[in-house]
């Protein structure tokens, strides 16, 4: 198992390197650099002045040199003030060094946010923490309900309960977040007046009234998907020979389900649940913008809309890491849950 985890960690590192290289290339395309220069200078700046700004701030260096600087394996060179000839930091509002230094991802420096005028880490990690709280409550709500629905539907295939729960699961899965979010806002915030339709204040203080609608919007889609997978797994397990043997021995239906069927039926849903983390990263972008929740998705949209290159790179790095680490946890957990799997 240790050798398997070591190999997977090596594969993860190589995958992150390749993906970040691709993202770095796409973000630093010429149109994006031009937009960044325009946003950081006056709108009527001439093309020569824009080019001078890009040159002065190091955006015209060799692509692989810049990528190495972002990683922290190549020294960052300070800018030279043409008036005094002295070395000056690239962005003064981030307290960047005015001398050559190794300062990149490997050193814990994610760069400088040109939109928020602050180091990327001071903006990214609080936003990631706010999204982590949101995702935690989504999982706490989504997983137990979906497993219960799937187990109840799969215990007696073809029954009225199975058909009712299956239709409800399909309906929730077929409804995207931007539709269910609007529906919940109209019903619970506008018509009934029970909940606050905006979660903008959630970062200052999370309450039931300003936090419930984002959680409901994210959870409702995942509930149907996990419930369908759990039902399919439960139906398959209930047709196995050892289940018939247990029933013939005189065990009650409840004991057969709890002691024999349930653990095996949860193997496949476990993998599906772990794969919800990458989906939640994309889902929070829609929901956080809709409810103005100051989290990771909202920050990502702000960075993309304002050509904030360093913040976009930081968001992409976090996204890739979360996707890869959850897949590793899923593989290890699957091996422990299913004794038939042997890691060579």
From TrEMBL:
Cell location: Cell membrane
Bilayer disposition of the protein: Multi-pass membrane protein
UniProtKB keywords: Cell membrane, Membrane, Transmembrane, Transmembrane helix, Transport
Domain ABC transmembrane type-1: 128-330
Pfam families per UniProt: BPD_transp_1
Transmembrane segments: 12-29, 134-155, 167-194, 206-227, 266-291, 311-337
Family membership noted in the UniProt record: Belongs to the binding-protein-dependent transport system permease family.
This protein's name: Peptide/nickel transport system permease protein
Organism: Aminobacter ciceronei
């Amino acid at each position: 198992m240790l050798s398997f985890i070591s190999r997977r960690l090596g594969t993860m590192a190589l995958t992150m390197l390749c993906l970040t290289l691709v993202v770095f290339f796409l973000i630093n395309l010429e149109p994006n650099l031009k937009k960044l220069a325009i946003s950081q200078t006056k709108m009527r700046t001439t093309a020569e002045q824009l080019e001078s700004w890009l040159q002065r701030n190091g955006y015209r260096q060799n692509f692989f040199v810049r990528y190495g600087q972002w990683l922290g394996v190549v020294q960052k060179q300070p800018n030279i003030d043409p008036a005094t000839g002295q070395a000056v930091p690239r962005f003064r509002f981030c307290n960047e060094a005015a001398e050559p230094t190794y300062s990149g991802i490997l050193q814990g420096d994610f760069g400088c946010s040109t939109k928020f005028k602050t180091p990327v880490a001071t903006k990214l990690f609080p936003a990631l923490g706010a999204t982590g709280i949101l995702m935690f409550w989504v999982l706490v709500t989504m997983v137990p309900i979906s497993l219960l629905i799937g187990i109840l539907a799969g215990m007696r295939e073809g029954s009225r309960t199975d058909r009712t729960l299956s239709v409800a699961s399909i309906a929730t899965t077929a409804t995207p977040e931007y539709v269910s979010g609007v529906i919940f806002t109209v019903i619970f915030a506008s018509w009934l007046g029970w909940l606050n339709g905006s979660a903008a204040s959630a970062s200052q203080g999370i309450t039931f009234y300003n936090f419930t609608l984002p959680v409901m919007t994210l959870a409702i889609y995942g509930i149907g998907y996990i419930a369908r997978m759990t039902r399919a797994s439960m139906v398959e397990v209930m047709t196995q020979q050892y289940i018939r043997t247990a029933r013939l021995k005189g065990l009650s239906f409840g004991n057969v389900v709890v002691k024999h069927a349930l653990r095996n039926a949860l193997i496949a849903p476990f993998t599906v649940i772990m794969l919800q983390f990458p989906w939640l990263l994309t889902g929070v972008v829609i929901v956080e913008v809709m409810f103005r929740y100051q989290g990771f998705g909202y920050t990502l949209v702000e960075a993309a809309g304002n050509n904030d290159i360093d913040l976009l790179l930081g968001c992409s790095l976090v996204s890739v890491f979360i996707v890869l680490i959850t897949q590793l946890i899923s593989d290890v957990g699957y091996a422990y849950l299913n004794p038939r799997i042997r890691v060579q």
